[in-house]
Every structure is written in structure tokens, then in C-alpha cells.
UniProtKB/TrEMBL annotation, chains A, B:
Annotated positions binding substrate: 393
Pfam families: FAD-oxidase_C, FAD_binding_4
Cofactor(s) the protein requires to work: FAD
Organism: Nocardioides islandensis
Name under which the protein is recorded: FAD-binding oxidoreductase
Residues passing through the membrane, by range: none
Recorded family membership: Belongs to the FAD-binding oxidoreductase/transferase type 4 family.
Domain of life: Bacteria
A biological-process GO annotation: lipid biosynthetic process
Amino acid sequence: MAGGTRSWWGWGNVEDAVRGEELDALLGRVRALLPDAELAPVQAPPVTELGLPAPRVKPPSALEEICSAELTDRAGHAHGKAFRDVVRNLAGDVRSVPDLVVRPAREQDVVDVLDWCSRADVAVIPYGGGSSVCGGVEPRLDGDHAGAVSLDLGRLDRVLEVDRTSRAARIEAGALGPALEAQLRQHELTLRHFPQSFEFSTLGGWLATRSSGHYATVYTHIDDLVESMRVVSPSGIGESRRLPGSGAGPSPDRLFLGSEGILGVITEAWMRVHERPRWRAVASVHFQDFARAVAATRAIAQAALFPANCRLLDPMEALINAGTSSAGGVLVLGFESADHPVAPWMARALELCRDHGGEVPDPVRDTDTGEPGGGRTAADGWRDSFLRMPYQRDALAARSMIVETFETACTWDGFAALHAAVQGATATALASVGAPGVLTCRFSHVYPDGPAPYFGIYAAGRPGATLQQWDEIKAAVSDALIAHGATITHHHAVGRDHRPWYDQQRPEPFAAALSAAKKALDPAGILNPGVLIDR
Amino acid sequence: MAGGTRSWWGWGNVEDAVRGEELDALLGRVRALLPDAELAPVQAPPVTELGLPAPRVKPPSALEEICSAELTDRAGHAHGKAFRDVVRNLAGDVRSVPDLVVRPAREQDVVDVLDWCSRADVAVIPYGGGSSVCGGVEPRLDGDHAGAVSLDLGRLDRVLEVDRTSRAARIEAGALGPALEAQLRQHELTLRHFPQSFEFSTLGGWLATRSSGHYATVYTHIDDLVESMRVVSPSGIGESRRLPGSGAGPSPDRLFLGSEGILGVITEAWMRVHERPRWRAVASVHFQDFARAVAATRAIAQAALFPANCRLLDPMEALINAGTSSAGGVLVLGFESADHPVAPWMARALELCRDHGGEVPDPVRDTDTGEPGGGRTAADGWRDSFLRMPYQRDALAARSMIVETFETACTWDGFAALHAAVQGATATALASVGAPGVLTCRFSHVYPDGPAPYFGIYAAGRPGATLQQWDEIKAAVSDALIAHGATITHHHAVGRDHRPWYDQQRPEPFAAALSAAKKALDPAGILNPGVLIDR
């Protein structure tokens, strides 16, 4: 929630941490699943006890006003929000910390910071909401630079312009999800990009990491909602034209989308926005057999029905995160529209499900809010609990549980083998590190040619050793993903932590081209060193 | 049609040129529209009279077998198929001609050709079907290289592999449209990419130029149908993973899509294919007012109904190319599906049209072929006449008519001003060059945030001067596009002819990045010099 006290060590706001009845219920569910879990709580140390070194760099006087060397700022910007970040914070293990946190108030400040840092060999880590789960905002520099600043775009948070006719809005990169939605709502518009990090991640972060969001089909990634972008690089400012489509050379925007801050700092973008949906239909389909559930989901993905939600939960995921028991998984289907009732779409999707053995025990929940975007629906409830999950993850991480996710994408043809390989690698790794646990799987997004499987691991770790245990599990499953032709990430980005697998995945000539592009745009090599490519 | 004799100077096959009754009818229509047109025919000279210089380079003996110095080959590969190419050919004005036409029989041949040419400073012009309309395949080198070869991928024309489960096919880059569709049809699949050049353009050409095709919405460009690509560059071969979606760094494919042969030679790609549609619905909506027709089209584009066809014709376009008289234009709407009847989709789209004053004089043509892909429909008839247009263009170009198209994209908000500016610039330019003529406009593709307007010019030129006349008109309208924030091309690519406007359009930092990427992948600078960026 906006306006709270950001936790320096964990997700979101201090005031919103899991406690009381929610905590009791959560721990109860864990004990039922993993009776041997110890669940002994630890507390994060105060930032004054982290032993942070004094800043190694001093900003030019013209920039002093936007620079902070405050301990909580620096500690809070040292890590992202992965499980391994939270565990290290809880242990007081904060080694790579920015010397300063810089908060530009206007684009020229960004230009000036890049100028100063290029001259002074200071690494610049572009920072949106800080929700990276792959080491994307951590100044892990191996001594290559005179220092590091975290460039926090949070003050650039306005919707600057709205073109209602073209359904587009010019938005500053530092706007957090709720802030930009609140501003768009005044125009009865919405971006409808709802990653799990929604409350504490920014437009610029979404663009830089090719975030995926609300839509299970068609507009899966933020890439698809970009009309144009403005990027400040050390060698100049670039702004692409506002174009609905173009074939003029390789897409300029696509080079910066996913560039994770190594080529420039995104300062604003024209985004394609939507009218707020009025009609919604939601249904849950139960299956006796997971392979048939996958086949049904594939049929829907290939039917060009374009559901907004097409989330297949495997039986363990359905049990843990939806409280539903099913032998073959549950497919949660949702259609929505600001323009028309969606019953024909849902009817055909359910027909496809029934063709594959799906059963629909409850009636379809049809909603017509009567006006664009009014009212609350079942989907809102799921979203609330979805947004709550990172807080619960922290509560468990502080009780020596291993709770983490990883995600990928693969072809339909390759899914069964990949799934088996991930299950096998996880089981072996859990046994090897001595952590009893479970693996869940859902499809977060689906495409005509394949799903984006999203995996969760819940395991009882050994107090004080969960970081090493997780790193071993993560390496094993990452190896399995790469060996089976999948991507190391569908929407969590690469950062520093995914580099070993990303380096195997990407075509070598592309890596050479990207390195050359970086040298042209960032000749001093100050931008997010170590992310995506070698320094 | 496959198997004919390719014309060295004009579109397609010699056997299919416009003659007899078709020619009489065509000239009759022109005389009705432009009574002053002279229409005196000229004939292209035989290639032996072009005075082509002897080849300046000699291939290594290992490559001799795949090299041709034959005059018709060289003359036929000198130009693309723009109006200005055809006019120059008809005048025997063929100055930039490749020294050799090289036809690799396997990927290793491509590697060997790039090796040889890098060593010998020979420019390599990747060549698919040769249908470029922007100077993309013309070896206009200004003496910077020892010679030039046209690398014709036409022998690499097979569908190598089909993954029916994931609906994907691995296809060689040199496959022409009809050849790849014929091979896919054996699997009851289709790529459904039908640019106007369909019969004489290749998969590799579509990918290298970001071709747009059949689908008016969602999958507008070939980019959206790519699962992975294989590219041979002078510094190595790259192949991206087969992934339905990914967020691992900037998209490798998107750097090569639209790279127009300057970064490497695309040799094959995994493409997303479809089942052949069974259900179709087609309707024509008439409007009294073009602005209201545009508003209706916008409403459909923003309603997420995703028609396959959403072609708004202005009154002149409707008259000339559809034989329909209407005060405010005609919207041709088409829905299609391999999965379900499309009546609800069409019903809602027509409702939106009626809300904006549209009238539907004829009943919706609903088709159910009863089996996937069987039968012919009205859409097929339109496609046939659509594919016939380039032949008719040639017949008119040979009779001193100026017949050419240009296309762009813009936001909905900017369309009216852009349209007026293009109309104004065209009228002024036509008057200035003394060519009475008309301008037509249609939307080839539509997006939630804007249309892709496609313009046609039909003017009575001065015999012997139509090239200069067209160049002046083209410059005037291109200036108008750029001044009004539009793109110099939505799907015709940049090549050499669009450079002055492309250079104004693209962000400068992106140009620097692209140049750096090219230097890394093509250190000798042999690949399609002068296209997209400076040598």
C-alpha cells in the first residue's frame, strides 16, 4: 500500500507484514504440509548493525540535493526482493551496497548523473521499485569501479499526457503500479499490467525487464503495450516515434525492452492503455488427469479465443494456493471486455475443456458491472491474495522455510519432458540438501505454440543454511530448463543471478551485437555492470 | 504462378503479363478516370542490349558451381520491383548490376560465400524473391567494393520439420509463398502470411523486412509469427531457441527482424503456423462520411474483436479497386476461425459500425466449409485480384502511367491531419510535375492505437519522364509523413530509397547501436552496404 514504511529487508511495507491470525493460519498450513519444518523465527538486524562501509564517492555539489547516503536507503537498495535477497538481509549479510541512492527529480538529473558517473567511473544501477528477483539491482562489482550509485527513479511518477482517441498515455518511468493506475483511472483508462510485484514495481522496471502481467494471452508482456519509449544513455537521449506499428528497420524499442539498464535509463514511455472492463466471465474447470488438462489448455491457446486469464494449476498448486483438491489440476479461465458480453467466448472455451474431460462444478461467474470498471469481482479477490504472497514468503523465509519460484516457457511438444525433468531435478536436489518439500506448477501465460510454466518450491530448510540449500536447488532446476530447450526466464529477467544459464541460451552473434551496442551507448561501461553481458 | 519464366524487368512470370481482354478493360478504366492519359506502350529491351559490364569478380573454384554470370540472371537481380525499378528497366537503364548471382544449395554455401566475400571485399546482397520496392536488393555501391554478388536463397525452399502439437514448422528462408504453403498444406497447416508479393517473395525476405500480411489485427507482421531464427553472419552462425515467449534480455530475433540483410543472412526459421480456417464471415459496410467510417474502424480496432480483415477503403479506393461507389468509404470486415463459428464476433463489429452510421446493404457472407480449409470463398476472389495488381501496374508503367503505392502508420489521434497533409502534398506535387492523377487510401492493418494507411497514386505521366515525376511526388509525400509523426514504412522496409526519411525517424542512439552491432557481426562491411545505415 502506498504511504507506508518500506521494509529495508523484505517485501513492501513494514505495516503490512504478516502477523496475528494471518500468520497463525499460514504456519498452520505449512505444518500440515511439512510436519518436520522447524519454523523458528529470526529477525532482521537494524541497519545500524550491518556494518556498512562509508560511501566511497562524493557527488558533485550540483547533485548533492538528490543524493542520499542514509543507511536505510543504502541497505534498502542493496538487494532486490528474491528469496536469497531476503535471507541474506535477515542474516545481516549485506556486502554489495550502493554508496549513494540518487533520486532524480527530472530527466536532466538523469543526464547529469550519467555524465558525472561516466567521468568518475562510478557504476550506475537503475532502480525502479527494487523488486528484482535475479540480482538485477545489486551493485556486485568485484572492485571494477570507483563506487556505485543506485539511481532510484521513484520521483518521476506522473502520467504526463493522455491521448484518449488513440488510447495511449505518456507515463514517467518511476511510477509504481498503483500510482499510475490511480492517475489513469481519472480518465477511465487502465494499463492493466498486474505483475505480482504490481504494488512495488515501476513502469520503467517493467519495460527494462520485459515484465509480464495480467493478460494470459496476446498482450502477455509489457513489450506489447509500448507505443514509444524515451531512453537516456550516456551518449545521448533517444525517443522513438509514437507508432501503432512499423516496419522501419529493427524495432528501436525492442532493443531497449529487456536491456535491464545496461544500455540506458528509460525515463518515460507512451503506453497503450485500455478502457476499464465492464463484462467478465470466470470459470474453474477440474480435470482428472493433468495431461488432459494440459491438452485442453493447449486447445484454448490455439483457438484464438484470447482469454484474459488461462491459468492451469497442477494438483499441488491448486491445493496450496487455491485450497482446491483435484486429481488432474484446475484450469481457471477468465474473459473480460469493455466492449461486449463475453459469454460466447467462454462457452466455446468450456466446450474445448469438456472435449478433454474437464468438468465445471460451479456455474460460470458472469459479471456486468453496468458501467465501465465498476464493482469488484471474484478476480479481484484472487488478485488481493496474489499480491499478498510476497509478504507470506517473507514470513516463511524468516522461519527457515525455502519458499521461492522460478518460471520459464517452452513449446507444447516439449512440456511433458520439461515438467518431468524439473520434477526430477527438484526432487533430487531437495533430497541432496536434506530439505523435505513440494513443487507446484501453474501456467501463468499461454501461447499458441507453448505455455509459460511457473513453478513454486516450498521446503523446510535448515536454519542458517537455507541460502546454500536454495542455491543448489536453483542451479539444478536451471540446468534442467536449459538442457530441455526452455528459457531461463519468461518474465523474471536475467540480472546477475541467471547469467550462467542465459549465456548458454542466447545466440553467440547476438551477444556480440549486444556488447557492441553497449560499448557505443555506454562507452565508460558504467551502466549496471555484470547484468546480461560481461563488463 | 510457379514454373513460369520470370520476367527480368517486371513482376512475376512473362506468361502471366496482362494482355487481351484484361488489358483492354484495364486501359478502358484508366481512360474513364484520366481521359488525357497517353497510354503509348513501350517494350523492355532484351538483356543483350543493356550493355552490362563484364563481371569484375571471379568466385573461388569451390563456389563456381553455384555462381551464375548469365545476363538475364544479372539483369533480373539488379533491381527490385518498385515502379521506379520497372520504369528504369523498361528504359534499359540498368546501372547497378550484380557481378554474379550466387545460389547456395545448403547453409554451408552461405558461410563460404560470406567468407570469400569478406576476404575479397565483395558486397553481398541477400536476395529472396527480389520484390523489394525500396532499393533493398539493388547493388548501388558507389565504387566502395571490388564487386557485388546477389545471394539468391531460392534453392533453400523446403519445409524441414513440422511440430503439429506446438503448431510450428521449420522452414528454409528461400521458400516462396506458394511453395511453403503447398508443403504446409500436406500437414493441414498454413502460415497465412499473404503479402501482395506472396507469389514472388520468400520467408527470409519477409523476416528481413518485417513484412506484414494477411491478418489486419494482432498478428499483423511476420515478426509475430516467428518462434526462432537461424542467421549466418560473417562472424558466426546464431540460432535462437524455440520459445513461445521469453523475457531473457532483449529479443535476439527482434534485432534480425527488419535488419534487411545488413547483419546476416537468415537461412531458416521456426514459424508459428495455423490450422486452415473452416468458418468465415465477410461483410461490407458503407458509410456516408469518411470521418465516421474511420471512427467505426477505430471502435472495432479497440474492441479486441480481432478481425482477420478490417480494410477501410476511402471512396476513391472503393471505386477503383472494388468497383463500389460510396460517399464515405467502405469497410470490408472479415472474421475467420479454424475452431468456432464467428457470428458473434461479426455481429458485434457490425453493431459498432451501425453506431457510427454504417450501413450493411448485403447480407453477411457466412461460410462453413464443413472441413478445415476446404472450398473457396469471396475472400479468395479478392486475393486473386489483389495478387494480380502488380501485373497491371507493369502494364500501366509501360504506358507512361505513374502507378505506385506508399504506406505508413500513425496514431488515431493524428490520422486526420496526416491524411489531409498527404492529400495536400500529393495534389501539389502532381500539379507541379504536370501529371493529372488521383490518390486512394485504405487501411491495410489496424491497431488499438492507430491505423496503417496504405496509399495509391494513379497519374498520367509524361512519356520518358515518369521516373523523375514519381521521385518528386514520392519525396513530397515522404516529407509529409515524417513531418506528421508517421513512419516512413509500415511494411515496405527501408532499403536505400527510404534512407533520407528513415534517418530522420529513428532515434540517434539506436542508429549508433545498430552500426556498432553491424561492425561486430560484419567487420568487413560487405552485407547489403548502404541499406538502413551508412557504410
